[in-house]
Amino acid sequence: xxxxxxxxxxxxxxxxLTGCPYDFKVPLGTPQQHGFDNRLMGDWVLDDxxxxxxxxxxxxxxxxxxxxxxxxxxxxxxxxxxxxxxVRIGDQEFWNINLIRTHHPSPDYMLARSRFAPDGRxxxxxxxxxxxxxxxxxxxxxxxxxxxxxxxxxxxxxDGEYVWRRPAxxxxxxxxxxxxxAPTPLIK
Length: 188
Known about the structure:
Layout lengths: L1 H6 E2 L32 E5 L9 E7 L5 E7 L4 E11 L2 E8 L10 E7 L5 E5 L12 H10 L13 E4 L6 E2 L2 E2 L11
Antiparallel strand pairs: 2-3, 2-9, 3-4, 4-5, 5-6, 6-7, 7-8, 8-9, 10-11
């Protein structure tokens, strides 16, 4: 979980965590005008049973004509925003994730493969550090390497899959999960 939160917060996603899956200088492709996957849109809950502070409310919205805006709000109130688009390699979807910074876009991408479960949950697994560093800035070589390692378990980040679920009816109140306590005020 710590990799997911940091990468979705440096990306996907930082002060809560240490380390990040792997930063790539190039995405796996370019955003395509293929329409949005409506299954991704809306609010999600990312629960981390091992580290409650890394749990997050996730919102997925259109960013522009080809990319998603992914907003994370962690239980401690930290918020992070990312641009993301998907690229299909073989029979798998890969997210290309880019942190939105205030002053300039992040030059790096994080990559995560995704899949939907029959019950509608979304599983994300970041690409790990087993990719040769020479491919970090070579899009064609990176795609070829990923294509040839789609079933290799060492290809994935050690933190495993992150599971996003839809919030239960009434679980979100005023943009926060009801189970979270109110954020601590900065001034008392």
